Amino acid sequence: DGDINAGAQKSAACTACHGAQGKSSVPLYPNLAGQNAAYLNHALQAYKKGERSGGQAEVMKAFVAGLSDEDMADVSAYYGSLKP
Amino acid sequence: DGDINAGAQKSAACTACHGAQGKSSVPLYPNLAGQNAAYLNHALQAYKKGERSGGQAEVMKAFVAGLSDEDMADVSAYYGSLKP
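ok -> structure tokens follow
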């Protein structure tokens, strides 16, 4: 399982689109706050494996390219811990 | 934009995995309650266009195959309207 505090420190790049507290300011982008951490981790892994295309998938692929499995688990734990 | 009440009536098939009120009982599946409706609609369209694979994507593709653009907008409006 991911580390919430480590995830908070690794989440800076996420905030531009997904909001400072995981509440997106852009309706087309998903809120992350309070989402199931296991699902968030799955989604990040899916981007990394090239299983998603269209929309902002290319942007997400670029971001996750620099993330390790641990990084993705940590960030997922962090957003899952936030109040929706 | 979708019709919340119509979406509620069309959401029966979603509840098995995403919960009666859009809160998933399975951590690997996403909560839908309070998610941005525009994002939910985008995600449904992405499944329909074959832009997502892996995980439960095949299950989602099977479900959305029977949904019109209006159906997807309605269901998205409904889940977006629920308390997260």
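Chain B is about 50% helix and 0% strand.
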